[in-house]
Write a structure and sequence with these properties.
Layout lengths: L4 H10 L19 E4 L2 E3 L2 H11 L6 E5 L5 H6 L5 E6 L2 H13 L5 E5 L12 E6 L8 H5 L1 E11 L4 E8 L5 E9 L6
Helix pairs in contact: 1-2
The structure holds S-adenosyl-L-homocysteine.
Length: about 190
């Protein structure tokens, strides 16, 4: 069964980005991106909620996330799904998020240091994939690792980026729709 909007919003309101920052003095109570170090940012909370909503999560889902960052988006998703697999390319952010999320008690998150463009082949296929850094083009490995009936939410583009939803039907046919213009850090 699909996760309800009410339970998503309730959990969203229980999370505070302050708890995800290495440097608490970087915290501002604003609906805007915040610096998380290493030239990276955590998105504005309303966009994190919206991307989670677009995933249309269900309790049995195995989810792949590219761009762990500070772990805020991971914490938004993990309680609603069976397992979350998250990949980060910057070691300090990977370790910081891993320690933070484990200390917070999230027990169903698996962490990997590496290039998310390759996905996580050993754990594929995934019911859902979310990418929180923008590639110029949709990485083919991620489309391949999306299971039948799967859904991917990903910002795509260079200067002008669109939040894009990719659906794979039971026969493996791909559908692509654009949601809205966004501005993410690049997927390197
Ligand atoms: N969802 C994160 C947002 C992090 S910003 C959060 O809630 O904090 C995007 C992240 O993607 C950065 O941490 C950046 O290091 C990471 N990233 C960029 N390119 C990547 C790649 N090729 N593979 C994995 N992670 C990548």
């Amino acid at each position: 069964m699909k996760v309800s909007e009410e339970s998503l919003v309730k959990h969203y309101l229980s999370l505070n980005r302050r708890d995800f920052l290495e440097d608490p003095s970087a915290y501002r109570e604003v609906d805007a991106p915040l610096a998380i170090g290493h030239g990276q940012t955590v998105s504005q909370p309303s966009l994190v909620l919206h991307m989670t909503r677009l995933l249309e999560l269900a309790a049995h889902h195995r989810v792949l996330e590219i761009g762990t960052g500070c772990g805020y988006q991971s914490a938004m998703i993990a309680p609603f799904v069976a397992a979350l697999y998250t990949v980060e390319i910057i070691e300090a952010l990977h370790l910081g998020a891993k320690n933070r999320l484990l200390a917070m008690g999230y027990g169903n998150i698996h962490f990997k240091l590496g290039d998310g463009k390759a996905g996580w082949a050993e754990e594929a296929p995934f019911d859902r994939i979310i990418v929180t850094a923008a590639p110029s083009r949709i990485p083919q490995a991620l489309v391949t690792q999306l299971g039948p009936g799967g859904r991917m939410v990903i910002p795509v583009g260079d200067f002008v980026q669109y939040l894009t939803v990719i659906e794979k039907d039971r026969e493996g046919r791909i559908g692509v729709s654009r949601e809205m213009a966004v501005r993410f850090v690049p997927l390197v």
